[in-house]
């Protein structure tokens, strides 16, 4: 009987010790999940960069720059976005990032108004919110990173088209990506101002034509334009996909000497079309630098530092900061031509 009691007492003590260990481990795990903002690997800042969509060359190049900035600056970069240029998908991506408790969300909105509620939610949970590439609702963001001065860029594209047409009169058309994309709309507005003020004999055959950020759509829309407008002399194409689709249609129809095409295209994509004249000039900037700049400024924002006009950003160059203190301009555009397109690797 005595041996039995000793055995039972030993079992009770053993069970008690095991239960205590299990309770201690569970409590520690639970406390880790609920104890405020999570940090990245090794306590690093977590910066989320959300493009309009993933998988196209422009945003692939931006991703490369963003990831490199993360390595150089010692922060964890999450580069994620929808597979289509769709605002509803972007909202879901941002909801997921909020649940991950990132420190900063930088987004290029497909539809600024559609993202306002979820960006407000992020701010309410202590996440810094900024935009890049495309402006979001300015009442929500703390920093707005632009690749270019939008109006000046639009005017430059319009003047380039007139130069390539070789005439200050005639019919032209405008292709765009998504109709709600704020940056594309700003560039188009700048181009229209330039035409209205300085080239009154240039006629738009229609309102801007959406291509949904898809090359086959831009190609087909251009074929439709050619068919319905036999006197068409030029096309301005906005979004990095639209100029390539337009050039593909011009190339197929052998209209290089009749219809000029200029647009916001990447040099690597543009090269074969520039070489045969179906695309006259691609006008853009270096998207890898834009991705790098976005992460660099996001880190500063999380650290409580605001950008300054004329500030030198390593691997990017000098930036311009407007008087509002939050609008940042990366720099002037680059013209990609048959002569220089091969000098770039994106």
TrEMBL record:
Instruction: Report the domain of life of the source organism.
Output: Bacteria
Q: Which Gene3D superfamilies match?
A: 3.40.50.2300
One Pfam match: Peripla_BP_4
Indicate the secretion signal residues.
1-24
Give the matching CDD domains.
PBP1_LsrB_Quorum_Sensing-like (cd06302)
Which terms does the record give in the GO molecular function aspect?
A: carbohydrate binding
Keyword Calcium assigned to the entry: answer is no
- What family is this protein classified in? Belongs to the bacterial solute-binding protein 2 family.
Write down the PANTHER family for this protein, in alphabetical order. ABC TRANSPORTER PERIPLASMIC-BINDING PROTEIN YPHF (PTHR30036:SF7), D-XYLOSE-BINDING PERIPLASMIC PROTEIN (PTHR30036)
Under which name does UniProt file this protein?
Autoinducer 2 ABC transporter substrate-binding protein
Q: Which organism is it from?
A: Peribacillus glennii
